[in-house]
Amino acid sequence: MNKKPYRPGPKRPSNATRPRGRNRKMGPKNDQDTNAINDEIRASEVRLVGDNVEQGIYPIDKALKIAEEQELDLILIAPQAEPPVCRVMDYQKFKFQQRKHAKEQKAKSTKLVVKEIRFGPQTDEHDYNFKLKHAIGFLKEGAKVKSYVFFKGRSILFKEQGEVLLLRFANDLEEYGKLDQMPVLEGKRMTIMISPKKPGGKKKEENKDASTDAVQQDNTPAEE
Predict the structure, then answer these.
(1) Would you say the pTM of this structure is higher than 0.70?
(2) What's the CA gap between 99 and 65, in Å, rounded?
(3) Higher-pLDDT residue of 177, 181
(4) CB 187 within 8 A of CB 165
């Protein structure tokens, strides 16, 4: 089989610039691209917003011309509005800002983890310290700790003992977490919820106490 001879086409000049604005050819959109741009916008008139533009309602041809003169894109950002709203800006920059905003929102809405620790009303000291160590680790990781005493059968008679145990547990975790509610008895369970303290919270309190001590020392009358 004879191969066809290779004939290289004309090379693109190294100083050639990529066309921008209305005539720029954009690559195929992926599933995440939901904003129509430039000639994809079908409205007859749009409300124009963006930097370095006079905001207002324009015929679509005029809006496209304004974007092209600035070598930017006309991006449809509110198709349901009347008339639809478009922004004049670089499309790649617009997508970057959208991804950044989505990432920030995802970080804020991270699902809070809740770890459960179960006690019996007559938990021995060794078991208590073992579970206390685990709770400290959970709180340091940023998880909430839901601790409860389970009363089985006639052990409900020891509910006061269970309450004392949970309050002791919350007190021993005071350095790492904050008690959200006092012990609550629901059926056969008495429960408390402990939230992790924000990093630096203890340090701020220590600095506050140090400042208070300094003020008290300054107000101490000098000895004669």
Answers:
(1) no
(2) 28
(3) 177
(4) no
* Contact predicate 142/102, CB 8 Å: no
List strand residue ranges (DSSP E) for 20-72, in order. Answer: 45-49, 56-59
Give the pLDDT of residue 33: 53
Tokens at 138, concatenated: 């959970």
User: Strand 144-150 vs strand 189-196: parallel, antiparallel, or unpaired?
Assistant: antiparallel
pLDDT at 223: 44
How far the first Cα of the chain sits from its last, in Å, is 114
Instruction: Indicate the burial class of 113 (C-beta count within 10 angstroms; 0-12, 13-18, 19 or more).
Output: exposed
Domains and CATH numbers, the chain: 34-96 (3.10.20.80), 114-199 (3.30.110.10)
Q: Return the sign of the alpha-carbon dihedral for residues 56, 57, 59, 60.
A: positive
